[in-house]
Amino acid sequence: MAFELPALPYAANALEPYISANTLNFHHGKHHAAYVANLNKLIEGGPLASKALVDIIGKAAGDADKVGIFNNAAQTWNHTFFWNSLSPKSGAPSAALAERIDAAFGSLAAFKEQFKQAAVSQFGSGWAWLIEDNGKLAIMKTGNADLPLAHGKKALFTVDVWEHAYYLDYQNRRPDFVQTVLDRLVNWDFIAANLKA
Ligand code: FE2
Questions:
Q1: Model pLDDT for residues 15-49, shown as the tens digit of each residue
Q2: Do 189 and 111 reside in the same domain of the chain?
Q3: Looking at 64, 85, 106, which one is the last position of a domain?
Q4: Cα(31) to centroid of ligand 1, in Å?
């Protein structure tokens, strides 16, 4: 069965003024949609057509003959994960999550600083991640479509740092985009739920 573009978990204007409806309409309606459509074309009629998305990613990762499938499957997954990583009702981490963050990074401010550093230093297109690695929270960055799953790591939260994620609102100011997401839009409940999963 073909994959479908999942609806955004909030209205396209819900993240304004930090991320515009214009950005979300292009990012979700054009970029994410294109990854889903390309993935469906690439797997149609083949042995991967009936597989779950994470299984397709796992099978295609590191396979030189399946680079296109990997890229489009990973980007399909990454974007859905990114939409869920954001929330118009960000709030603050629960006490339990704050404790995990303090244990790993020293403080919430230090977490944000280290995450921002990873996001800003990712050369070219890619993603910054909060992951759980051997029971500890950690930060990771990946290039292009790459993702923690392909490295045996568990993703908890991500920020898309491809230019299409911020250019309409922030032009070349990736640090401002990342800082705004960290200060205003983090879905802390999603992180906590992923930790328990
Ligand atoms: Fe994107």
A1: 999 999 999 999 999 999 999 999 999 999 999 99
A2: yes
A3: 85
A4: 7
What is the Å distance from ligand 1's center to 99 Cα? 30
- Three-class SS of 81-136: HHHHHECCCCCCCCHHHHHHHHHHHCCHHHHHHHHHHHHHHCCCCEEEEEEEECCE
3-state secondary structure of 186: strand
**Domain range for 191:** 95-196
**How far is ligand 1, taken at its centre, from the CA of residue 75, in Å?**
8
Ligand 1 center from residue 145 Cα (angstroms): 9
The alpha carbon of 45 and the centre of ligand 1 are apart by a number of angstroms equal to 27
Expressed in angstroms and rounded, the spacing between residue 96 Cα and the centre of ligand 1 is 30
Helix (H, G, I), strand (E, B) or coil at 166: coil
Cα(103) to ligand 1 centroid in Å equals 31
Question: Does any domain span residue 105?
Answer: yes
Q: Reduce the DSSP state of residue 159 to 3 states and report it.
A: strand
Instruction: Report the half-sphere exposure of 33 (CA within 13 A, side-chain side).
Output: 9
Distance 184 CA to ligand 1 centre (A): 19
pLDDT tens for 79-104 read 999 999 999 999 999 999 999 999 99
For ligand 1, the distance from its centroid to the CA atom of residue 152, given in whole angstroms, is: 22
* One domain, residues 52 and 131: no
Are 73 and 131 contained in the same domain?
Answer: no
